UniProtKB/TrEMBL annotation:
Designated name of the protein: P2-like prophage tail protein X
InterPro entries to which the protein is assigned, alphabetical: GpX-like (IPR008861)
Native organism: Billgrantia gudaonensis
Length: 70
């Protein structure tokens, strides 16, 4: 499933992915594949440009541990 969003003034593809999907890892590359020619527009997207974004995959929960005695 995909969603279509419109770029706001000064938006980059990373910013759109982060704002709408709360992720950028691997999502940005998928969005480029879904939008042929998007990279040719440059790093800052034109205001109002429609961009198709992929459905975000659930992120695994991080379980960081601290070793007090190394």
């Amino acid at each position: 499933m995909t969603i279509t969003v419109r770029a706001q003034q000064g938006d980059t593809l990373d910013a759109l992915c982060h704002r709408h999907l709360r992720a950028t890892a691997a999502v940005t590359e998928q969005a480029l594949a879904l939008n042929p020619g998007l990279a040719e527009l440059g790093p800052v997207l034109p205001e109002g440009h429609a961009v198709t974004l992929p459905e975000a995959a659930p992120q695994p929960e991080r379980n960081d541990t601290i070793n007090l005695w190394s």
